[in-house]
Amino acid sequence: MKNMLNSFSIKVLFAALSLSGYLFAAGEADYPENYYDKVAIFLVAVIILAFLALAYFEGRQKPAAEKKKSVLWEKIKQYLTRSTPIEKENEILLVDHNYDGIRELDNRIPPWFSGLFYVTILFSVWYMIYYHVVDAGPLQEQEYAEEVRIAEIKKAELVKSGALINEETVTLLTDVADLNEGKEIFTKNCVACHAADGGGLVGPNLTDDYWIHGGGIKNVFKVIKYGVTNKGMLAWQNQLNPKQMQAVASYVISLHGTKPANPKAPEGDIWKE
Fold first, then answer.
1. pLDDT of residue 22
2. Is the separation of the CB atoms in 255 and 204 below 8 Å?
3. Exposure letters 105-143 (e unless 16+ CB within 10 A, then b)
4. For residue 239, which of 227, 253, 254 has the smallest C-alpha distance?
5. What confidence tier does 273 reach under pLDDT thresholds 50, 70, 90?
6. Rounded Cα distance, 184 and 252, in Å
7. Whole-angstrom distance between the N-terminal and C-terminal Cα of the chain?
8. pTM, entire model
9. Measured between alpha carbons, how far is residue 139 from residues 123, 124, 130 in Å?
10. Which end of the chain offers a freer environment for a tag, N or C, measured as fewer CB atoms within 10 Å?
């Protein structure tokens, strides 16, 4: 029964560990809020069932096949560990190693441990030949360089697409082509509220020193992106991409100091960079 109990306990333990490792492997964001409560209840149920199974097997007569299997397993364990039975421990007792009653046995190194050590040696030889002699695979340094190269390409693509531009990273464009692009977007979408020359109609004057929500490229970009819905300013983030919003924000900044035909009275506070 003891062997069966140990064997069964080990199986239950490994099954529970494997299952819990699988269940807890993903990040918290991958599951509902009460997911781990359900997992904990499930694991407790597994443990209870395991003890019930143990109680059942305890009262069951051990079949001959299981006895044979148990003997075979004991032989395998003995082969792998070469452990010394308790009744023979006096034969390997180190009599001069006695520390406050704690005594030491001269056990031999378990064969499984020695085998594992030999495997590491063989692996190191194979690794050296594979990677350093015949150059059949890339070294870690080469893999790192390749991953950096690929990352740089992807970064350049993102920068080119404008995906990295937001209200924190946006910069003022001064190139004529970019300002012309911004003017085209402004003429198409903004003149109804701000007038073609930026002097302001329903919306504020964009040419003076006063800004309701702050001046500068970052504040202007932010207003264009998120809008001011309570005052009728649309959020353009779903209609313009980041590069287009950067271009039109830069064009709006370029209107500062110009002389509109019918400028609207100043609104907001004076803005100085």
1. 54
2. no
3. eeeeeeeeeeeeeeeeeeeeeeeeeeeeeeeeeeeeeee
4. 227
5. confident
6. 12
7. 83
8. 0.51
9. 16, 14, 10
10. C
pLDDT tens per residue across span 77-134? 888 888 888 888 888 888 888 888 888 889 888 999 999 999 999 999 999 999 999 9
Q: Pick the residue with more confidence: 18 or 216?
A: 216
Token digits for 243?
Answer: 């590069």
Residue in this structure with the two tokens 């395991």, named with its chain if needed: 50
Contact indicator for 152, 199 with CB cutoff of 8 Å: no
State how far the alpha carbon of 199 is from the alpha carbons of 12, 80, 191, 231, 256, in Å. 78, 89, 10, 18, 10
Give CB contacts under 8 A, 24+ apart, made by 56-62: 57/1, 57/4, 57/5, 57/8, 58/1, 58/5, 62/1, 62/4
pLDDT digit string, tens, across residues 134-169: 989 899 999 999 999 999 999 999 888 888 899 999
* Cα angle for residues 123, 128, 131 (degrees, 5° grid): 110
The per-residue pLDDT of the chain, averaged, comes to 85
Q: Which amino acid is at 69?
A: K
Evaluate if residue 8 carries a pLDDT over 60.
Answer: no
Q: In the predicted model, is pLDDT for residue 175 greater than 80?
A: yes
Q: Is 89 exposed, middle or buried (0-12, 13-18, 19+ CB in 10 A)?
A: middle
φ, ψ for residue 210, nearest 5 deg: -105, 135
**3-class SS at 88?**
helix
What does the radius of gyration of the chain's CA atoms come to, in whole angstroms? 38
Residue written as tokens 């990677």?
Answer: 131
